[in-house]
Specification:
about 300 residues; glycoprotein; PLipase_C/P1_nuclease_dom_sf; binds zinc ion; binds 2-acetamido-2-deoxy-beta-D-glucopyranose; Aspergillus nuclease S1; endonuclease; 3-stranded mixed β-sheet; mainly alpha; hydrolase; P1 Nuclease; globular; two-stranded parallel sheet
Length: about 300
């Protein structure tokens, strides 16, 4: 197909339109996270998830894990919930300091959203009080599953000044794009083409084969007492952003094999971690035998 074919121009146009702050992990990334999570759900959690999924998901959580990106224009209020901006070059994250939107409204960031939607699902699950606020739990589940993925994408916890790499224009091999998009999408797409014969299922299998106990959720440890602990995930992300994503990716640079091959293991590990942790979280939320006494 020619470079100037209308469909190609349309694509460029759409990509340009959508470029600023639109994506989480791309569609593939979120699909991978939720597919992995499905394999670690308990029977109780799987049943609860299936009951909440919209019909079009046909019982598959992964089918709707990109939904929050699709409705971002429609639900404008949800846009800041996909990321966190941290102070430039500090390479750290603090909930109180950083979790707000661009006009300073507190809790409006990805970790705030994870707390929010966990709380909604927990309340409904626990409460028999009919006067309690009713949330749309189908949306809560889709938001939560998506945001647990997003908080693991290193550049979703990036610097304020470059909007998490969105304003860092670089080349990915020969293609002009921005650094944020490389981490959402391009590394995964290049890996699919280079190593997995463009087959997402094969890629998911390889990532899964690598999963070990080391991926287990720190929520069980003493650094987190509640049902959900997104803050350590955000801290890991900004650390990885500084160590891997921003490094050697200055504006105008061309990223190729060196960058791709050294960063791909980081991406694969983050996808695996999000999947395992999402499952652990949903298992806690939908556990039929919750007991505070056992903590
Ligand atoms: C919490 O969820 C509700 C319902 O979707 C939404 O209106 C609100 O903006 C959310 N707040 C945060 C911080 O996620
Ligand atoms: C809950 O949200 C889903 C997805 O946006 C929507 O299709 C459904 O109609 C909503 N349910 C209610 C009761 O509003
Ligand atoms: C599996 O783990 C090894 C060692 O950490 C890493 O180099 C490789 O990229 C991983 N592969 C996948 C598919 O995650
Ligand atoms: Zn997102």
């Amino acid at each position: 197909m020619g470079f100037f074919e209308p469909w190609w121009i349309m694509r460029v146009f759409i990509v340009l339109l959508m470029a600023p702050r639109i994506h989480g992990w791309g569609k593939e990334g979120h699909y991978v996270v939720c597919k992995i999570a499905e394999n670690y759900l308990t029977e109780d959690a799987l049943a609860a998830v299936k009951a909440l999924l919209p019909d079009r998901a046909e019982g598959d959580l992964a089918a709707v894990c990109s939904w929050p990106d699709e409705i971002r224009f429609h639900y404008r209020w949800s846009s800041p919930l996909h990321y966190i901006d941290t102070p430039d070059f500090r390479c750290n994250y603090q909930y109180c300091r950083d979790c707000h939107d661009s006009v300073g409204r507190k809790d409006r960031c990805v970790t705030g959203a994870i707390y929010n939607y966990t709380m909604q699902l927990m309340q409904e699950h626990d409460d028999t009080d009919l006067s309690a606020v009713k949330y749309n739990l189908t949306e809560a589940l889709m938001f939560l599953s998506h945001f647990v993925g997003d908080v693991h994408q290193p550049l979703h916890v990036g610097f304020t000044g470059d909007e998490g790499g969105n304003t860092i224009i670089i080349r990915w091999y020969r293609r002009k794009t921005n650094l944020h998009h490389v981490w959402d999408t391009m590394i995964i797409e290049s890996a699919l083409k280079t190593f997995y014969n463009s087959d997402l299922t094969t890629m998911i299998k390889s990532i899964q084969n690598n999963i070990t106990d080391a991926f287990a959720d720190e929520c069980s440890s003493e650094n987190c007492k509640g049902t959900v602990c997104p803050d350590p995930y955000a801290t890991e992300s900004i650390n990885l952003a500084c160590k891997f994503a921003y490094r050697n990716a200055t504006p105008g640079s061309t990223l190729g094999d060196d960058y791709f091959l050294s960063r791909l293991p980081v991406v694969e590990r983050r996808l695996a971690q999000s999947g395992v942790r999402l499952a652990a979280l949903l298992n806690r939320i939908f556990s039929k035998h919750k007991s505070i006494a056992s903590e």
